[in-house]
Write a structure and sequence with these properties.
Helix content is about 15%, strand content about 35%. It has one helix at about 70-80, and strands at about 10-15, 20-25, 30-35, 40-45, 50, 55, 65. The strands form two sheets. A five-stranded antiparallel β-sheet has the order 4-3-2-1-5, with no helix packed on it. The relative contact order is 0.23.
């Protein structure tokens, strides 16, 4: 089962390490507006991978930030 992208999710595309922030999602789930720091782009949610943990600045410091609530939601969806 694929998790549903929600407003406020951290996402990546493909093998990229760039993390975007979901600003808006269509009511029918057909698109999501993602802020990629340098630009925003409307994307199909099927191309996005939700991340519940992201690196924290300064990069390479080993520090991370985790959205514990979203992680629990995603794990619940995977387990079914």
């Amino acid at each position: 089962m694929t998790a549903t992208v929600k407003r406020g999710d951290w996402v990546t595309v493909g093998q990229s390490d760039v993390i975007g922030f979901v600003k808006r999602v269509a009511r029918d789930g057909s698109w999501a507006d993602v802020d990629w720091h340098t630009h925003s782009k409307r994307m199909q949610p099927t191309h996005l991978t939700i991340r519940h943990t992201i690196p924290f600045a300064p990069l390479g410091s080993g520090w991370t930030v985790t959205d514990v609530t979203r992680r629990a939601e995603l794990e619940r969806e995977v387990r079914g």
